[in-house]
């Protein structure tokens, strides 16, 4: 059993990873500073199971300020999920937050990792590093041309991971997650918004015409890929892996599915398209399948059903602004 640090432990994906690692018998340190991207109460609810577990230790603190030698010195592995998500909000003045929370946090962690002889470092990157698609599935050799400042900050963090792997032998792996959904999904993400608005009988707002395509990945599949990356002994330089769910859908079809499952006829309103939102995402997850044994296990309808069931059980409706 390993001693594992999960950064962003109170977030959507981080909290699921913590639960899964505890279940597997590891000693887990969760770190989070409860940024105001969404509410503290929601994040506290995310980790409410973990905080009472005897093998869990929680550090409330900011990766930009903590003494990371102290934090990393007592763990074997790190899964670095902390960051500022969101394409729409990454333009303009707010980009400074993205450089701090996505780039500088990663550099500080990597410095501490290099000094403390860590066994594994897994970085949660994003499909947003690729940018506009050329109509087919992307593999990891596809050139990265981010379409948003968010994507650029994730790519910069990836470059730091590669740099510290090359120059300081940090044994690192990069995972590029494709749109993640499921219970605890962030409240501003499309599916979360659709479910909340449908529950309140409000028109569902779709950005753009709704024909944009997304590769959707259920959160337990993302977690399994992350667990597999933590278990793997990285050979040579840090390698990137796409992690996609194997199902793609238009945003319009997502709305239709939510309506169907909730038994509601949803009224749809259209907002302006989001600058930096790509037309389509499509993962070739072949490398993750071959080298991590990754195989997505949750079909889209089942996953949406699970998220709706969770939301209706009172965890996240009707809290959306
Ligand atoms: N959700 C997705 O669809 C998706 C897709 C691709 C990549 N990712 C990446 O996965 C990771 C997790 O995403 P999520 O959807 O769970 O986001 P989230 O916002 O729910 O979780 C991120 C957590 O990091 C914490 N955090 C941010 N900056 C911090 C700092 N400086 N110090 C300590 N804690 C800090 C936040 O408080 C938050 O709880 C992110 O790095 C994101 O870029 C997510």
From TrEMBL:
EC id: 5.1.3.2
Record keyword Endoplasmic reticulum present: no
InterPro entries in alphabetical order: Epimerase_deHydtase (IPR001509), NAD(P)-bd_dom_sf (IPR036291)
UniProt domain NAD-dependent epimerase/dehydratase: residue ranges: 4-244
UniProt key word Isomerase: yes
UniProtKB keywords: Isomerase
Entries under Pfam families matching the protein: Epimerase
Transmembrane segments: none
GO molecular function, one term: UDP-glucose 4-epimerase activity
PANTHER family: DTDP-D-GLUCOSE 4,6-DEHYDRATASE-RELATED
Stated family: Belongs to the NAD(P)-dependent epimerase/dehydratase family.
Protein name: UDP-glucose 4-epimerase
Origin species: uncultured Rubrobacteraceae bacterium
